Amino acid sequence: MIVSILIGAVWGALGCAVNFFLLKAAVKKSNANAVLGSSMTRMLVDAAVLGAVFLARRMLPIDFAAAMISTAVVLSLGSILSALLLMKKH
Where exactly are the structural domains of the chain? Predict the structure, then answer.
């Protein structure tokens, strides 16, 4: 179960990194439409990351629920922390 949590957390962290760079690029443009588009794209990235965990449940011998929950938690915390980090810079 701990391995499942770690796998989910690492996978979520990769999704967070993609989301962070998308948000950072949108904020640099100083355009409300860019930030809105970035938010939509980040939601699609989150769905893709969670979908990948869902699809991997039959291929990998891991506890699916633990991996899915840890992925969702890391994605959520990463979104909050990345927004706070970018707010401090500006």
Answer: 2-89
Return the pLDDT at 30. Answer: 83
* Helix axes 32-56 and 2-29, enclosed angle (nearest 10): 160
User: Rounded CA gap, 54 and 75, in Å?
Assistant: 15
Query: Could you tell me which of 42, 12, 13 has the C-alpha nearest to residue 25?
Result: 42
State the Cα–Cα distance between residues 59 and 18, nearest whole angstrom.
Answer: 24
Distance CA 27, CA 24 (A): 5
What is the structure's pLDDT at 90? 63
pTM: 0.86
